[in-house]
Structures are given as C-alpha cells and as structure tokens.
Amino acid sequence: MEDQNPWKRAQAELKNIASKVKVSPKIVTRLTEPDRVVEVSVPVKTKNGLKLYRGYRSQHNNILGPYKGGIRYHQNVSLDEIKALSFWMTMKNAVIDVPFGGGKGGIIVDPKTLSTEELEEMTRAFTQRIADIIGATKDVPAPDVNTNPQIMSWIVDEYAKIIGKKDLAVVTGKPLELGGSQGRTEATGLGGAYCLDYILTKLGKKKPGMTVAIQGLGNVGSYLSLSLIEMGYKVVAIADASGDLCAAEAITDMNSIIECKKSDKDLWQCYKDHSDNAAVKECKVLEHKVDVIAPSALENVITTKNVANVKANFVLEMANGPTTAEADKVLNDKGIIVIPDILANAGGVAVSYFEWYQNMHNEKWTKDEVFKKLKSKMESACDKVLELSKKHNLTLREAAYASALERIEAGEYKDN
Ligand code: GLU
User: Fold this and answer.
1) pTM summary value
2) Do residue 54 and residue 159 come from a single domain?
3) Is residue 43 within 8 Å of residue 52, measured between CB atoms?
4) pLDDT category of residue 416 using cuts at 50, 70 and 90
5) Residue among 144, 345, 351, 355 whose CB has most ligand 1 atoms within 8 A, to mutate
6) What is the CATH number for 214?
7) Catalytic one among 68, 92, 104, 174?
8) Residue 320 Cβ contacting ligand 1 at under 6 Å
9) Ligand 1 atom closest to the CA of 70, numbered from 1
10) What is d(CA 278, CA 398) in angstroms, rounded to the nearest whole number?
11) 270 is in which domain, residue-wise?
C-alpha cells in the first residue's frame, strides 16, 4: 500500500525540489524539521465526566515572519499531519508572498460529539496551554477544518484574559465585529477560483462553460463553487461527507443547496429540494468526466486506488495535501495539470494577512478593496509559478516550491 503519511510526503517534496533547483543546503536542512512542536492535553468536563483531548501546535519556520496557520478539530488529526500542514504553511505563505512563516495546530476530536459549551471549554483550555507561544508577532492561528470565526473569538477572549489586554491580531478569521476582515470567509474559495481562471487563461486552455466537480462543501468548497459559477464555469458534480452527486446539467441554485445543508438535511435531499435537474447519487465526483476536479476537504483523496480513473484535465487542490505522491506522479505522467494546494488555496491566508495588517494598523478595508487585493496577490503568485515552471521545466507543484524557496532564501539573507 502507498504511504499516506503527509509528513513523509512533505519531506520528500522538499528533497525533490532541492535536487532540481539551486537553493542553499542550509535552508533546506533548516526546513526539514519544525522549529518547535508543542503537545498538550486538553481537559473538558462532559456529562460523562472529565475527558482529555490531545492537542498540537507545530511552529515550522519563521524566517519570513511570525508563524501562521490554522487550527483544526478532527478525529484523524495526528502529530505527523500537523507537522506536514505547518510545513505546507511555510511554503504557502512564501508562495503568496505574505510576511509570515508557517504553523499549524489541531486537536484530535470529532467536534460533532461535543455541545457548544464543551467546544468553548475545549477551545479555551487549549488556548491556555498554548498562550505562551502565540501572539500577534509570534504565532497567529486561524480557522481550518471544523473551526470558524466563533471559535476564533473564544481564543481572542481567553488570550486577553491571560495577558491582561486585548490583542486582536493574535488570530485571524475573526467575526467582523471583533476585528475580522471583510471577505475572509469567502477568501480561500474565491482565491482558488481566481487562480484557476488565471492559469487556464495564461495557458490558453480556457473555454466557455468549462465543467467542474467539487469534492467537499465546507467553507472552501462552498465559496469555490459560488465563485466559479459567477465566473461562468459549470459546476456539475458535488460531494460532501454524506455522499457524491453528479448532475445532468450545471447546478444553478448552489446558494440554496449550501444554505439547506446547514440544517440536518443531507446533500441529496438538499439537491432534490433546490434543483429540477436529474442527478445520480452513485457516482464518484473525482472520477467524473469534467474539465476540472477540485478536492476541497481533506488529505489523501487522490491515491493509487482512484488516480487511473481521473478523467479531468486539471486538478485544483483546494484541500491541503489531497494527492498522494504516487498519485501525483500518475497525474503528471497522464499530462493532467495539478494546481498545487500551496498555491490554489493560499487565498485564505492572503486575506488573513490583510486582516492582521488592518488590526495592526487600525484600518478597515471594504470588501471590494479586499477582493481586489486578493485577486492581484493570487495572480502575481500564479504568474511567478508559471514562469518558474517554464524556465526550469518543472511541474506547477515543483515550481510553487521553487518560488517559496527563493523567497525564504532571500528573507534569510536580507540582513547579512
Ligand atoms: N487554514 C487555512 C490554510 O490552510 C488558513 C490559514 C490562515 O489563514 O492562517 O491555509
């Protein structure tokens, strides 16, 4: 069976690019391990007595600025996963050119098993345990899988109690009324749509009405689908944890489907309530015959098990680490273009940077301003990756790494 350990994959990706482009061996060595990993036990009083949950924060690297990256709550969180995700944040922040290093946190928990009060207690207890190592100029968490603005507001509040003053920029992805930025909620999905559209146009591959299949309809998949539909793409297949659905024609009323899913109805029921189009349930969105597939949920969903059946010409990696190393190789051999996670989903952290900047400078930008800046950041990052890919004959993933390493190296040596 292929290795699905994301940390081993992250290390292999670094080694691979170091063998292909000129980069200081000192930098490469530095990036092979996180600067610091903190592992804590998080107590929560539940109706069945006290329960302990395991939590992690990995601070991978801060050459370019404070450690930065989300916190996820998921039953499959592991130390190696968090280390890999923190490494990918270092790379992502360098690719999108924001003055941050990389970090990531997580708690091994299925948040659906907790009440709102327990979730708050867990978040506050975790904040107490990592309070010494976070802060606006040290390490700035944000939402990730199963975490949201409400959870960020509990962190801000608990952190303020601990340090004795409000430090709004200690996390990003906050609610608007608590110093959040306009456009942060839409940012990852919208940024992915900008990136896809730009790359297709630059490569001369854009055609009217291109079809897309989206796996995952959380925050990222939802805003990706809405943004792409607005830009003229046809979303014809969608999937969430309740199953896959392939429609006969473009799905038009995506907004209602997404709204409906917030109730306890499943995807299929919501689709039936809000679409007259025929659809089949027994399909696999990642194997559907479309122009673009966009895995937008978790790691390791394109593997040796299904990669031979991928029929799309483009993979837009909106999740972090959705493709295993072996599957990535098969995609490349088949001539399928992979727009890698550290580029495709960097819109989230780009607007996190805008939020942090607004907090630090006491500014408030309009949604239009934020979207304009996001578009320009995504397009510059895509340009640079395309340029390096052409210049050194690299895949877009390798070129994204090359771009990141170039910036990290320049950051490391700027004061010498
Ligand atoms: N969790 C998001 C990511 O993986 C955003 C991180 C952030 O905004 O700091 O990129």
Assistant:
1) 0.96
2) yes
3) yes
4) very low
5) 144
6) 3.40.50.720
7) 104
8) yes
9) 1
10) 40
11) 185-339
